[in-house]
Amino acid sequence: MQFASDNWAGATPEITTALAALDTGIMPAYGNDPITARAVAAFSVLFEREVEVLFTATGTATNALALSGLSRPGGLIFASAEAHIHMDEVGATEFQSGGMKIITLPEAGGKISPDTLAATLTRYPDSGRFGQPVALSLTNLTELGTTYSPAETAALAAVAKARGLGVHLDGARFANAVAATGASPADLTWKAGVDFMSFGGTKNGCWAAEAIIAFTPGLLKDMPMRRLRAGHVFSKSRFVAQQFLAYLEHGNWLRTARHANAMADLLRTGLGPARLAWSSTGNEVFALLRTPDAARLRAAGANFYDWPAPKLALGPDQTSVRLVTSWATTPADVAAFIDGLNQAL
Q: Does the first or last residue of the chain, that is N or C, have fewer Cβ atoms within 10 Å of its Cβ?
């Protein structure tokens, strides 16, 4: 009953097999190998246009380095109050970008509205003393397990671009968003106005495989040098590239994401509407549990995190938790959790 995070799951068999195939042999280093070239080409096919791809090892580094490519003195990045770059990355974006500031926006279910973004931007004129608006950062799948549709992303991007902002997408769980919406990767990104993104593979079955993807090559200034300075240039790049090739091959990335989402659907069904803190569509489920039930489940071997939800009116004996499914979650895991939860009823 492992529902703490999709980061807890290991690498998929396809990834481990692909890595083992490169266990021997000699190839050029630092991305000058044919495997890396093939992986970059595969991303261009995936997104239906030529893209620039730079591998990184972690999601935090990907977000921080990508946004640093738009850095300006007094630069301002607008993001949801729940955004990972604001809540979970200990100022990495501010550090890598030379001091740009994140301005947080109110959200509903993890999502920003165009009206909220427009109203906030009016408080930050281009020539004002409060800083220079530089970028909008969205997350899809959001931190609260919801999704932006292509139309919703396009509406936000239109507001941002009217002020000259670049649009960044944190795609740590991008595969789950694609699987949940049924939209194409292109429709959810550059066709909707996204300029660059952080493409995550680790949460969905890769091993330390993330990438900065710019939908216009050269958009992010000095990015190769910024990545080198940050220590994220892989000498043996082919091992990251090989993972992405196996990840994308035959739609493996969507198959595993669809499975994770399906397991979350089973959880939502088993919990029932009364126990759901809010509606989500990806592989993250947010539930309201009785505190004794949460303790009993943990004692029985379940792993999950308490998840503070200030907007919710919790009872005196109630807690809010996050449950995350992965490619490795099984129906038996879900059934054991729901059965354990219902034992006290």
A: C
Per the CB < 8 A criterion, the answer to whether 128 and 155 are in contact is: no
Contact 285, 322 (CB under 8 A): yes
Q: Sheet of 132-139: strands edge to edge?
A: 52-56, 210-214, 196-200, 166-171, 132-139, 75-80, 101-105
**R_g of the chain, CA atoms, integer Å:** 20
* Residue 4 in domain: no
The answer to whether 234 touches 31, Cβ cutoff 8 Å, is yes
Q: Work out how many domains the chain is built from and give that number.
A: 2
Question: What pTM did the predictor assign?
Answer: 0.95
Q: Which of 161, 70, 85 minimizes the C-alpha distance to 118?
A: 161
For the record, the structure tokens of 229 come out as 């300075």
| Cα torsion 60, 138, 191, 119: sign | negative
CA angle 231, 8, 334 (to 5 degrees): 155
* Phi, psi (rounded to 5 degrees) for 81: -60, -20
Q: Alpha carbon of 72 to those of 96, 173, 267, 307: distances in Å?
A: 12, 28, 45, 35
Coil, strand, or helix at residue 341?
Answer: helix
Does some domain include residue 2? no
The model's pLDDT over 274-319, given as tens digits with 9 standing for 90+, comes to 999 999 999 999 999 999 999 999 999 999 999 987 777 777 888 9
Domain membership of residue 303 as a residue range: 253-342
- CB atoms under 10 Å from CB of 221, counted, come to 11
The stretch 76-91 carries a mean pLDDT of: 94
